[in-house]
Specification:
Blueprint: H1 10-26, H2 28-32, E1 34-36, E2 45-48, E3 51-54, E4 72-73, H3 75-82, E5 92-112, E6 115-124, H4 126-130, E7 151-154, H5 162-173, E8 178-196, E9 199-211, E10 215-218, H6 222-228, E11 235-238, E12 244-248, E13 255-260, H7 272-275, E14 280-286, E15 293-299, E16 310-315, E17 319-320
Parallel strand pairs: 1-10, 7-9
Antiparallel strand pairs: 2-3, 4-5, 5-6, 5-8, 6-7, 8-9, 8-10, 11-14, 11-17, 12-13, 14-15, 15-16
């Protein structure tokens, strides 16, 4: 039997190599080890310290660190415990130390009475607070409630590795994404405040954060944004008399997208099946350079989730937030 050699012209080989290079360049999954997982609400989510933990299956029973020293009361806390007055709306240093800790680092967007927040939260593995390495906390002397610090908002200002910098950049450019990864680090300080309405909130200072597993991310779909993530109050409706409005990169800057009136969500409380066939415009707060302009996320009519979202600004006169009122 005679076999013919397969001949592939050189220009086709060059094209294939070039195409594969472009795919790799724009595929954040292959480059950074990021994996997308489906998000099933009421199945793999859980509320911890009034914060939604997505992908709860990432929780692990990690072994206790050897010779770990529990966090200790600060001088600020000792003085507070001796006081009979409750200073409202202030952050107080509660505990400090150098506790090596494991947990789940999560980025997500949330809303409350004061507006919209882009948060990084560290959910501690339960072995730390159950073993009292992170002690229970009584906010003030005349309050009986004992708080278990199972999680804390953290402020990431320094990046000790490129992977963490990459996570921060992704969250900054795609605010509606959910990011999750197991990490370890050094918990140096834990503060508490009641400035988030009636909720007691912990803030942590964590140093030397290292990523332990693959990064997991999720682009919520339209139903999840409005019904499950509490962003219904941020839906903007069309208010212009023109047949279209422009989405700008910055106030009076480059036009990113022309939004057609007949594709936009125009009624409140649409059924889920109709919601999927409408473009959605979400308010992400005022633009810092010009308060007459709103930072927005535009999810096109044909988009299934926020992976196709376009972020920009729109003048406040072009839209209305009556659906959220």
């Amino acid at each position: 039997m005679i076999y013919n050699k397969l001949y592939i012209p050189k220009y086709i080989l060059y094209f294939l190599v070039l195409a594969l290079s472009y795919i790799h360049a724009f595929d954040i999954t292959s480059e950074y080890g990021i994996k997308e997982k489906p998000l099933l609400y009421n199945h793999n989510t859980i509320e911890i310290n009034n914060k939604t933990l997505y992908f709860k299956e990432l929780q692990k029973n990690t072994p206790l660190p050897k010779n770990a020293i529990p966090l200790k009361h600060t001088k600020d806390t000792q003085a507070l415990l001796q006081s009979k007055e409750i200073p409202q709306g202030h952050t107080h240093d509660r505990f400090e130390g150098n506790l090596g800790i494991n947990g789940i680092l999560q980025y997500y967007i949330r809303t409350d009475w004061s507006g919209i927040h882009k948060e990084w939260v560290l959910f501690f593995d339960e072995v730390y607070y159950k073993s009292k390495l992170i002690p229970k906390n009584k906010p003030y002397p005349n309050i009986e409630e004992m708080l278990i610090p199972e999680s804390a908002y953290i402020n990431i200002t320094k990046f000790n590795n490129q992977e963490l910098q990459t996570l921060f950049n992704i969250a900054k450019s795609k605010p509606l994404i959910i990011i999750k990864v197991r990490v370890n680090g050094i918990l140096k300080k834990l503060n508490i405040t009641d400035n988030d309405g009636d909720e007691w909130v912990f803030f942590g200072n964590v140093a030397n954060i290292s990523l332990l597993d693959d990064i997991i991310f999720k682009y919520p779909n339209k139903r999840e944004l409005i019904e499950s993530m509490g962003l219904s109050d941020n839906v903007l409706s069309y208010a212009s008399k023109d047949p279209y409005i422009n989405l700008h990169q910055s106030p009076n800057g480059k036009i990113l997208q022309t939004l057609q009136k007949d594709t936009m969500l125009s009624e409140c409380n649409l059924p889920t099946n109709e919601l999927q066939n409408k473009a959605i415009l979400l308010s992400l707060g005022q633009d810092s350079t010009n308060p007459k302009w709103l930072k927005v996320a535009y999810i096109p009519k044909e988009a299934k989730d926020t992976s196709k979202a376009i972020y920009g600004v729109i003048h406040e006169s072009q839209v209305s937030s009556y659906c959220g009122r």
